[in-house]
Design goal:
Length: 368
């Protein structure tokens, strides 16, 4: 008989509902036993709305009394590392919202806790877990698309002054980053999942139009170990919002266009003209049963990982690769250097802070 896991949700803000739906997607394998929030009124209302039996305003008390199997961390970013470590020390596995942590140094703390406790923290990178992405990876790995050559990865979103008026969203200390770390991270992680190890990056970043400390735009050119060259744009300033990934292989272009989530209908394949036969298109159209890029899809996978006591996909090496790329984008942007993978080590200011304490000072919003 399969085990039922008991979960606690920490943070009942706007993303909390997605975690409730994720628990429901496990079809009884996970039960949501508690919600935690420092705002007593908000957590009480959230608990009543979703039928959650226990509510807390004290995280440590919840860990001690409930002893959950899973902790779902949905708090502001600066709290992610200490909460994840505390949960693992209390015997839980963690599914944590992005950004997982604020530096490579903090990631090392999380990974040390994993080794010490035997429990794991997985970052929420739900774009990896759609069945259509697995389908693309199978086609690519089988050689049916040919070599990957060129890639585009754009996160063109819009975040206005009201969004950044929430205090923790605008500073390096509390948000841990801007359009790169808090917006574009999903698409960039998805790109890495499809293309593998990166080799070097050159980048720019700026705070162009928002009265915030963190950047509202960044651009990067990334060279991958397999020879692919990719352009990346991360923007909080784009009124027509779009998340767009394009992969140009020898035999076809594959495009994914969506905003915050996708299904197989969001993909498009264009074979090299003139098509000699329709075998590639037939293979492409043979999608498996469609599972979208949801929190639920990732939590279902995490339950399977815990059943098997294996490291989750978005833990360990994979989470390090993504955070290291983002750190390298900031370092390149603020130093003007080309940054190579595995070059940011302890002692480097960018190892302990994403912006290396070199980001330009905050400036006011540009006037129209």
């Amino acid at each position: 008989m399969q085990k039922t896991y008991r979960a606690a949700l920490v943070g009942t803000g706007s993303i909390g509902d997605a975690h409730v739906r994720a628990v429901e997607a496990t079809q009884g394998r996970v039960t949501l036993e508690a919600a935690v929030d420092i705002d007593a009124g908000r957590v009480e209302a959230f608990g009543k709305r979703h039928g959650i039996p226990h509510v807390y305003t004290d995280y440590t008390q919840m860990l001690r009394e409930l002893k959950p199997d899973f902790v779902l961390v949905a708090t502001p970013p600066a709290q992610h590392t200490p909460m994840s470590v505390a949960a693992m020390e209390a015997g839980a596995w963690v599914l944590c919202e992005k950004p997982l942590c604020g530096s490579l140094e903090e990631l090392a703390q999380i990974q040390d806790a994993e080794k010490r406790t035997g429990n794991y923290t997985a970052c929420i990178f739900q774009m990896r877990f759609a069945s259509s992405t697995a389908h693309l990876r199978r086609l690519a790995d089988s050689g049916q698309l040919g070599k990957p050559l060129v890639a585009v990865c754009n996160t063109l979103w819009y975040r206005d002054e009201a969004y950044y008026a929430v205090p923790w969203r605008s500073t390096w200390k509390d948000a841990l980053g801007g359009s790169t770390m808090c917006l574009g991270i999903h698409a960039m992680d998805h790109l890495l999942h499809m293309l593998g190890d990166w080799k070097e990056v050159r980048a720019v970043a700026a705070t162009s139009d928002r009265d915030i400390e963190v950047e509202d735009i960044s651009m990067a050119i990334v060279t991958f170990a397999n020879g692919v060259h990719a352009s990346i744009v991360n923007s909080a300033l784009s009124p027509r919002q779009e998340t767009y990934i394009r992969l140009d292989y020898q035999k076809a272009t594959v495009e994914l266009t969506h905003l915050y989530g996708y299904t197989k209908e969001n993909w498009k394949l264009t074979p090299v003209p003139p098509a000699q036969d329709d075998s590639l298109m037939q293979a492409w159209q043979s999608f498996p049963p469609d599972v979208g890029s949801t929190h639920g899809a990732q939590l279902v996978a995490l339950v399977a990982d815990r059943d098997a006591n294996r490291q989750p996909l978005t833990s360990g090496v994979e989470s390090h690769r993504t955070l290291e790329l983002l750190t390298a984008i900031y370092k390149s942007a603020y130093t003007g250097e080309i940054v190579k993978r595995n070059s940011i080590k302890p002692g480097d200011p960018f190892y302990t802070a994403l912006h290396g304490n070199m980001a330009p000072p905050r400036k006011g919003r540009a006037k129209a």
